[in-house]
Amino acid sequence: MENTPIANGSSLIQIPIEDEVKQAFIDYSMSVIVSRALPDVRDGLKPVHRRIIYSMDELHLASSGKTKKCATIVGDVLGKYHPHGDASVYDALVRLGQDFSQRYIVVEPGGNFGTIAGDPAAAYRYTEAKMTKIAEEMVADIDKDTVDMVPNFDDERKEPSVLPSKFPFLLCNGSMGIAVGMATNMPPHNLREVASAIGAYIDNPEITLDELLTHIKGPDFPTGGIIFGRQGIKDAYRTGRGKILVRGRFKIEVNEKSGAESIVFTEVPYGINTRTLCEKIGELARDKVIEGISAINDESSDRSGMRIVIHLKRGVVTKLVINQLFAKTALQSSFGVINLALVNGRPQVLNLKQIIKCFVDHRDDVITRRTKFDLGKAKAREHILEALITAVDAIDEVIKIIRGSRDEAEAKASLMQRFSFDDIQAQAIVDMQLKRLTHLRIDELKKEMEELKKWIAHLEDLLAHHEKILALIKQDTNELSEKYGDDRRTDIVAGEVESINIEDMIKEEDMVILISKLGYIKRVPVSQYKSQGRGGKGTISAKLVEEDYINQMFVASTHDYLMFITTAGKAYWIKVHEIPEAAKTSRGSHIKSLLAVTANEDITTIVNLKEFTDSEFLFMATANGIVKKTPTSEFRNAKSRGMQAARLDDGDQLVSSILSSGKDEILLVSRRGQALRINEEEVRPMGRSSRGVNGMKLSEGDELCAAIKIYNEPDSKILVVTEKGIGKRVDPNEFNAHGRGTGGQRIFGNVDDKGEIIGSLSVKDDDGVMCITSQGTSIRVEASSITVQGRSASGIKVVDIKDPDYVVGIDRIAHSDEDKADA
Hints:
Blueprint: E1 4-5, E2 11-12, H1 17-37, H2 47-58, E3 68-69, H3 70-80, H4 86-96, E4 107-110, E5 128-131, H5 133-139, E6 149-151, E7 158-160, H6 169-173, E8 175-178, E9 183-186, H7 191-203, H8 209-212, E10 226-228, H9 231-239, E11 241-247, E12 249-254, E13 261-267, H10 274-286, E14 293-298, E15 308-312, H11 318-328, E16 332-338, E17 340-343, E18 346-349, H12 352-393, H13 395-403, H14 408-419, H15 423-430, H16 439-464, H17 466-484, E19 491-493, E20 510-516, E21 520-525, E22 539-540, E23 550-557, E24 561-566, E25 570-575, E26 589-590, E27 603-609, E28 617-622, E29 626-631, E30 643-644, E31 654-660, E32 665-670, E33 674-679, E34 693-694, E35 704-710, E36 717-722, E37 726-730, E38 745-746, H18 751-754, E39 757-763, E40 767-773, E41 777-782, E42 796-797, E43 807-814, H19 817-822
Helix pairs in contact: 2-3, 3-4, 7-12, 7-17, 12-13, 12-15, 12-16, 12-17, 13-14, 14-15, 16-17
């Protein structure tokens, strides 16, 4: 673009606005990155923290002295070094003094500096502060030209570009910051471990990461907690990025009077606001997302420490609640490590060895500069001492020369000429006090000269032997460790477990899963159903609204997957323990709160499985007699959002889904009393979206009601139950295998009088059978109490029901040893 002339001989330079915006944003970004948001790898401080500590040192707020109002400190920092808002400076000052934010505080607070519950610090006109001893270690030797001093914002004074920082602040306290397009999130560590690692690196600069890990076990948070798994730690130390899983520490307390248990958390993951945490737990308890919590209290105090008490109801499985707390709250959190810091003014992601190297290099530079400074001062003093000793030895002549001179300049010139002094030495002689003219003083001067020569030799030896400077760095760090080091607060669980398996602490037990016609679901322990004799009246399993009734019932372990197949041909799954547990008489939770089921689809069948594999199949059968089988591995990603399981014809619906090996014998049973035995190999494996093939030929008005596996075991029988509560057991060997698509054989006699078949099961003599009616009545009977009859027989009464009630579902219950004992 051309330049446009304007007044006074100047010209207007035209540039594309996008170029100007890009450059302005880059300038702004670098300003934020370098001057505000990221720590320097050498002292581990951001500019505001560095200025706070340096300003407190200038104000002489030593750890052994008195505190001073934070308003004074903030004002001093703002007026001299940090031209930003007072809130940002005070917030940074407060954080440096919070023992739940810093592993090793560098500001000793006086007054209210806030709490881990999120309570803010008092206004800076009320609070006071001073440096801790560790902060003093960070500014030690700053007056010995150990770091570069740069002009402040108005060029009226100098400020350090970095602190000498004998204390490895970045590793021990970590850092958090968000810049433009990048962020840092570095965890704190234990000083003793850091000092040991620094010493190991100095001894062997080629040390490996695995060797460093023998010194630094992992992060050590000020709030304690437990780290699970070492892989995230290794990733962070090797690459500068990693995810570390942290859980709160708890103990179980029992109320001696009521017998109820309480979960008491004494430590929480780093950075967690305990008030927000308690509010979240209370909300989850009120919404029954986590059941069994009766109350939650934050009993933390300065005297007792952290103590978050979660009171449980009697009879609640404590370990289940604990795992739900870890799964659904911040009591289990991931710390995403990003070791980003400024190296020579440029942001860089660093691994553990690089961070240690940068600190050692910084201390190397600091000690080298300090040694040169001390050496320069020592040699300057030696130069003066040589003149003083010479002058005292010839004191009479010196006095005569000074007394005979007209002024100081003439005296200096005469001394320089007589004794070959330079200007500095001559000035020192002229300024010498009369009390130093005694004979005793000459001995002191010679003694000082002797000690000074030793000191000079030591300093020159340091500069000549770099390994001695490194040894001094190691010594300084070890001394810090001895003075201020403490035991680890955060434990690390051995092993490579990166996530917590909730099932590990959930009691494995059989559950009765109940689903009503209107979509309410619940799980009830099988143990709550007492065994009754054949023909019993049963017990109430659910209190439903008048229009609702139970139409699905299933028995599964708490560790199983439950796969739901809908009328729309979609599959969903959840874990059994994720279904809310409820009392036998409660209605339960709506299925749509657990699954993303649309308004126009209903659950038609449910199947439980242990895992998803290619060798196990989901065999599905529809009311119109269509069958198909699909590997369960294809449903691995269904979860609660669902995916297509089968393509159904208009008006058709799924009636059964069973797990199979792909080579099982299958019995298809119709409502009108027909049964067809086929070999599953006649049905080839199909994809999720396929329609399937004809499985059974049905007469007009008939439809399929069940598909079951046949087990070749002596006591295995086929159970059928009708809607009027009539049932029988049949020997599966009475059915011959026929080809797919045929009509099969009779399995039940008079369905017109006894009712159509509503379900069929494979049962053994020691199995229990659960029957559910449309009005919510349930009865549990022993399979052995149901008579074995021929194919054409019409059965016996299994459930005593009255119109208009009818049976809607049956399922098998495997006996436990306890059940057998009770029976």
